Amino acid sequence: MPVTVRLPGTLRDAVAGQTRIEASGATLKDVIADIDRRHPGFRARVLDDRGAIRTYVNVYVGDADVRDNGGLDALVPDGSDVMVIPAMAGGR
Amino acid sequence: MPLRRIGAGLRGELWAKLESFNPGGSVKDRAALWMVLDAEQRLDLAGKTLLDATSGNTGVALALVGAVRGHRVELCMPDKLSPERKRIAVAFGAALTLTDPLEGSDGAILRARGIAHDQAYVYLDQYANPANPLAHERSTGPELWAQSGGRITHFVTGVGTSGTAMGTSRALHPLGVRIVAVQPDEALHGIEGWKHMPSAIRPPIWDEAAADEHRTVGTDAAIAMAKRLAREEGIFSGPSGGGAVAAAVEVAREHAGMVVALLADGGERYLSTPMWE
Predict the structure, then answer these.
(1) Are B184 and B225 in contact (CB under 8 A)?
(2) Which of B54, B82, B104 is opposite residue A9, by nearest beta carbon?
(3) Cα A56 versus chain centre, distance
(4) Each residue's pLDDT tens digit in chain B (277 positions)?
């Protein structure tokens, strides 16, 4: 069963304008790799040159911030809702 | 404040204007105070709630001004932002309406516009309120001129609502100062308070012609410079301050004169983010 990844408007251009995308993978790293296979460049938008989640991107699996829950190795159970959001927002 | 180490070897002198010393801890105290005083003059605010969309610093500033002036304040801000500014705004008595984090600050703007139809609210709308740039025309601009002894030649500031750039341009452009407006280099960024204009709701007060130069800065470069400011100059800045100085370094590399960057807030407001890890 795939997981659902919901994306901010600022990332939709990386996935052909979609606001949510189905993906599969046991961990967050796998899920990102799966999306990147179909939409090359997605990984580089979310991860930095060292392969870590960019400082200004927050990722939630369900309600859990993955930074407190294993980072890229966070488990993504079947049917999970994954949310990728900007850590900050423009215009104070 | 001069940036002697970061500015070493550049053609121009490099200076920083530190807005974290304002009572609410950011540049947004200025716009908030001017917008509230303007609303008090124009409208009967009895029983009304002041409303705005904000991702943080304006919320803190409005909550502070509201507490002092005796107004209820409600703020629309994206959910799941770093908690510091939300908690400070609540400490000053503001009510929060959290909006879809996937829609960012634009989602907060759209929610505020929806709520504003209710007659119980006065929507201050920092993105369109002329009192926002007026605050900088009457305070920030004249301060920069006076504090620099009339030597400032370039003023470098990020663009979010654009109030700082617009107002200081009106004050300083007639005096021969060049305004440098800086934006994030891509839509998905972490420079709090700045807008990537091509992908965002355009602030009605923004006019590109107010700036003499337009530059972009990446989030990684902004954060790296914020860390240099802390370690080399003893200035604890947020990411936008780092971004402004990163752009100002380029300006001072190219031009002689006195280049002043505006540091909008302090690093304390980002302690819960990965920025300082």
Answers:
(1) no
(2) B104
(3) 12
(4) 999 999 999 999 999 999 999 999 999 999 999 999 999 999 999 999 999 998 789 999 999 999 999 999 999 998 877 788 889 999 999 999 999 888 888 889 999 999 999 999 999 999 999 999 999 999 999 999 999 999 999 999 999 999 999 999 999 999 999 999 999 998 888 898 898 898 888 999 999 999 999 999 999 999 999 999 999 999 999 999 999 999 999 999 999 999 999 999 999 988 888 788 7
The answer to whether B28 is a known catalytic residue is yes
Single-letter amino acid, residue B115: I
SS3 content of chain B, % helix, strand, coil (to 5): 45, 20, 35
Residue A48 and residue B220: Cβ atoms within 8 Å? yes
Tokens of B14: 């490099």
Residues B79 and B98 sit within 8 Å (Cβ to Cβ): yes
Question: B227: which 2 tokens?
Answer: 């860390």
Is A11 at the interface with chain B, CB within 8 A?
A: yes
Helices (H), B209-238: 219-228
Contact (CB, 8 A) for B224 and A49 = no
- Strand positions, DSSP E, B145-220: 152-158, 178-184, 213-217
What's the CA gap between A67 and A74, in Å, rounded?
Answer: 9
Mutate which of B76, B102, B103 to test chain A, going by most A C-beta atoms within 10 A? B102
Put simply, the answer to whether B102 touches A8 (Cβ < 8 Å) is yes
Q: What is the pLDDT of residues A71-82, one digit of tens each?
A: 999 999 999 999
Distance CA A83, CA B86 (A): 21
Q: Look up the ipTM and state it.
A: 0.79
